[in-house]
């Protein structure tokens, strides 16, 4: 049977929804005879606070998961993308039952007012600073949260790769993804001192191929979202400790909020650029003596949302997977792991908590309820007082999880007689 790729995520979700809920599980020795299952139930009314960098996708994706799980949703789109916010406020009430969804527009005041209310779950996409604020409000009501944050996503490049392909995939993940304004964009590259010149030259060729001699005029290069973020990025680049490290690019057009793809070599690890998420078109390249030293560089920083390794060395891949803690990892490409609906997408530590996408969105907005259905048969007298030594021996055997131990314990206390 052929299923078009665009319908595959829907097929996966429907398959799991139709055939895996409720999930039947073994009843267990202590409850025999019984039937056990795990039922998914809606949490109730949930709040979704979305981000500006992909304003439609990051609003609708969790909302669809919340609806599928049976919840009602209050959606707060980002005020930094006002046109999309207005569109969602106009379209959603037209096509979705208003009792199921409310779209609340506005800025900090409106978001704060929403956070003051009690919700059954809060789903927030954004940065870690606001994530802490969301979590503090949620704690007042013991509200569970999903925090989809970001972080400094590293790219480690070994010397045994197809260099041109690797450079294209790094460039596509960095500048093709909203000019670096994406939570899974490569934030910095780590490679060896001996290999860095080759990688740098390959990236330069690819950037020329992608954006031409005048990248600020390229229709394929996204602008920075607003003047505040433009000034933030300029402050990172103008920092005295990194301003002399620009190896390529650096051109700006402040009026059009454009910054050309910029490569920086050997940026100090204690610089502001390496202490915060860049979220823009600047890409530092850090060099180490041996590729294995890159893991220590990554682990010296908060856990990222994504970590990437370009290598053909199977042993190095295994070491990377074991050593680097991240929301997700990907080998020999960047960014596109989140397109697989069978993989959870979410962070760890500073990069967030909880996961969604595909059937995991259903899980994120559901409560897994334990259901046990016992028969009136199978009464065990050892369960009830008075607790004789024989009964206690049987109970100890049962709690130790060994039917044989139960029989032996009972036989040892009773000489083979049934416990009363």
From TrEMBL:
Instruction: Write down the superkingdom of origin.
Output: Eukaryota
Offer one Pfam family short name for this entry.
Aldedh
Xref: SUPFAM superfamilies: ALDH-like (SSF53720)
Active site (record annotation):
148, 183
Residues forming the Aldehyde dehydrogenase domain are 36-371
Output one GO BP term.
aldehyde metabolic process
Keywords recorded for this protein, A-Z: Oxidoreductase, Signal
Hey, what's the signal peptide range on this chain? 1-20
Q: Does the keyword Magnesium apply?
A: no
Name the Gene Ontology molecular function terms of this record.
Answer: oxidoreductase activity, acting on the aldehyde or oxo group of donors, NAD or NADP as acceptor
What protein family does this chain belong to? Belongs to the aldehyde dehydrogenase family.
Q: What is this protein called?
A: Aldehyde dehydrogenase
Annotated source species: Zea mays (Maize)
Q: What lineage, starting at the top, does this entry show?
A: Eukaryota, Viridiplantae, Streptophyta, Embryophyta, Tracheophyta
